Leucine-rich repeat-containing N-terminal plant-type domain-containing protein
Amino acid sequence: MGFKSGIKSDPSGILKSWIPGTDCCTWQGVTCLFDDKRVTSLYLSGNPENPKSFFSGTISPSLSKIKNLDGFYLLNLKNISGPFPGFLFKLPKLQFIYIENNQLSGRIPENIGNLTRLDVLSLTGNRFTGTIPSSVGGLTHLTQLQLGNNSLTGTIPATIARLKNLTYLSLEGNQFSGAIPDFFSSFTDLGILRLSRNKFSGKIPASISTLAPKLRYLELGHNQLSGKIPDFLGKFRALDTLDLSSNRFSGTVPASFKNLTKIFNLNLANNLLVDPFPEMNVKGIESLDLSNNMFHLNQIPKWVTSSPIIFSLKLARCGIKMKLDDWKPAETYFYDFIDLSGNEISGSAVGLVNSTEYLVGFWGSGNKLKFDFERLKFGERFKYLDLSHNLVFGKVPKSVAGLEKLNVSYNHLCGEIPKTKFPASAFVGNDCLCGAPLQPCKKA
């Protein structure tokens, strides 16, 4: 009840079952041991889909009295604020800390390494600042260390190499800098490594090669890494996701990538990579992004075309020269994002766009696409369309009003623009479009 008193707002009534005088083991989020009715875990979670399912308030230190607590879970409650809860150091049986997607701030305590029984420490999605304390190396039982999406700075402490039981290391979305430490030969069971969206520089360390047997997710995107993509990545037979996007990698993609038969998500966009791109032997790809390198693919790769399930295809500025009508992918139904902008693609997008049920966005600007705009059908999920700088003709259909973003500038469209919320820049440079937001139509 002391904890409940620290919560100032509970609009969705997550704590409404917490009534004095009733059995606390029946309260939402409270778990007890069956025999002695001791509280062993507190699990309170908001629903990200429901804007009302959050708390406002602070975490009461009165919870330090629950000596049998082994799990403390505060997930997606948004407005829980204050520092790292110091009372957690007084709980002798604590094994799991998940305080995710709240607004805790300040530094991670220097003595965090004293929580030696911890199996999981997840502080993802808060506002923690400062460096990772070197004492974190004392948490030798940890299987998961998740500190992503905070405002942490400095370099990764070398003491993390002592956490030999780690299966999951997530530091993405911070402001870490310097080189990625070359200490990965310590981690024989690591399956997930997420370091994206930081300021890491230098090369991919050689010791990452020792993770090949078990690593499923390697995410290094949006840093300042450079050099060649190492050939050893082709040995990662278990790899599901590889993200090296938005770095400064140069040279060719290793031919050994043909061995990545289990990869579902490959993102190499926004680097300095050159031809040739290797032929892959994937069974199916879910998302592929090769945009904004120096490739000259000519065609959409055969291994993409034959994929039985694909959600996202982004090949912007990849040197593709083809007629879109001639492209016959094995499956189009599940596409949600297609970006083919900045190529030399001709023909019509009607067949492709109209055969997708889940399409959210289609980007085809800067090509030679030529078709009647009114023939496009927009599904319920369709939100983004960019056909600027093409040869599209006909009228603007009323159905575009349901989109969130639209750009059909510099085509051959004509007639009165239906009522929409889009600015003039979405329609300029056409043959004879008129009406708001452009000049009024001339009356006959």
Notes: The helical segments are 2-5, 302-305, 350-354.
